[in-house]
């Protein structure tokens, strides 16, 4: 145990935790929105994120962006990669909904079937990137870790005086980006017409249909929005870690799902709280004990929190998102 | 209907608690003359396994009328109602709305055709404000698609009174027009407030539905159903849990709903209300229609008295 490490580097660890937590939170939104509307855990969502990271790599490759490009190129590449990742992830989420879930819904399948189908979809997507694409295109696809050029190079932008904490451009991008996306989504769900439909279906799907809300359209919208958020998370992740891999979604998806449950699944603001909480806990615990046990800390915290607050920190419900 | 006595005004919207006399904003257009057939229950039989829930039931709802559907418990009223709103498909016979068969149509499509309903046990969106509940209903009539709402491409030239006051935004709106989505959203907001005023609960428009008193919740359900601009509005036991004064108010409200252009179907246990407000009554017993006619005819019909009314003075 090394509490001195935690205390002496508290500022640095906090920044680390918030960075990590922001990414968890963005991915968690996808789980939480789908759950809020359909009472379904979409286990294929981790792969929606994974596809996003590949879209980033693909964009950089196509436009030839590498480390050390000029400012204009860096901005262009980042924006294009963001759009591509959002599009690819939203498309993947929508495809999963159309191909896997909708036929089941039409037949009135029980909830367990949806769960196992989600896991199946997740495996299929993983294997597509781990095996199938390699057969057709060769590297970089395959069962190895792939480097993504760090187009946006990490540079210290400013140092917080007093505590002497260096804040880099990538961290600013990740934290600000995540918060902006969350505020936008929150406003969309609470203020807009489409958001009203989403909340109506979340609160009472049958009545919503009888009042003319097209449930299928709301479900599609929720998958697309959750996917787009995972796409943003994918870009931010690659900016920070510069890698991707065919199974990169698994652990991040699991952590994001944990974050969603921690915050109260079905609750948008809960995803933010849960994500940041989980990120901080992981980093703090790794500082005090061994960092190779990071995943253990995360899940121990989940179990402990759920013992005392079974509905998560903020409680369940997308409908109740209106504070 | 008596006017609400609460004096408070609500922030954000200018609330006139009095129900204004002209209802341009909320009146609907009908698709045919009064008295023409709107919904047709054509010799409908409905079986669940061996149980015959409806047996050769046959009646029509005509435009512009208030029709009562009554019968003792288990007579098949709710089943009939559910068949009419597309929940059940008749085993035999057909249900046609404006000439189109509605069996097998999805609930939101049935709503688009022009049928809306309220529920015996209140089913509002509890975590939304009264206003938002009604706006969900209004949204059903919006024409802007999802991409249209996101990108706001489809723009219209605004009328003078629709222009924003702010100089820059005003100039922008003059040059580029205002998106149809925005105009529809504003119209929806106006209509919703008008409807809340119409049913008499505008003073608490911005409270969460679950915090409203029972009587307000019932009226809010009616406002939400009206918001979808239905030609036929079906009220499922609207007077349940009401005291006599509230029932009196409700009767007035039902008549005023008809005056807006809606056709009204009322399922109700309370005989005084049904006899007092309806133009015609259909009586069901054990899944069969045993009588149909004006309130006077039905009240005098010996079969109905025997089956349902018991002692004419102390019914229901």
Automatic annotation (TrEMBL), chain A:
Belongs to the binding-protein-dependent transport system permease family. LivHM subfamily. The chain crosses the membrane at residues 23-41, 48-67, 73-96, 108-130, 172-189, 218-240, 246-265, 295-315. InterPro entries: ABC_transp_permease, BCAA_transport_permease. Keywords: Amino-acid transport, Cell inner membrane, Cell membrane, Membrane, Transmembrane, Transmembrane helix, Transport. PANTHER family: BRANCHED-CHAIN AMINO ACID TRANSPORT SYSTEM PERMEASE PROTEIN LIVH, HIGH-AFFINITY BRANCHED-CHAIN AMINO ACID TRANSPORT SYSTEM PERMEASE PROTEIN LIVH. This is Branched-chain amino acid ABC transporter permease. It is a multi-pass membrane protein. It is found in: Cell membrane. It comes from Nocardioides hwasunensis. Pfam families: BPD_transp_2. The keyword Membrane applies. Its main location: membrane.
Automatic annotation (TrEMBL), chain B:
The keyword Aminoacyl-tRNA synthetase does not apply. Signal peptide: none annotated. Residues 39-311 form the ABC transporter domain. Keywords: ATP-binding, Nucleotide-binding, Transport. GO terms for molecular function: ATP binding. PANTHER family: AMINO ACID ABC TRANSPORTER ATP-BINDING PROTEIN, CONSERVED COMPONENT OF ABC TRANSPORTER FOR NATURAL AMINO ACIDS-RELATED. The keyword ATP-binding applies. It comes from the Bacteria. InterPro entries: AAA+_ATPase, ABC_AA/LPS_Transport, ABC_transporter-like_ATP-bd, BCA_ABC_TP_C, P-loop_NTPase. This is ABC transporter ATP-binding protein. SMART domains: AAA. SUPFAM superfamilies: P-loop containing nucleoside triphosphate hydrolases.
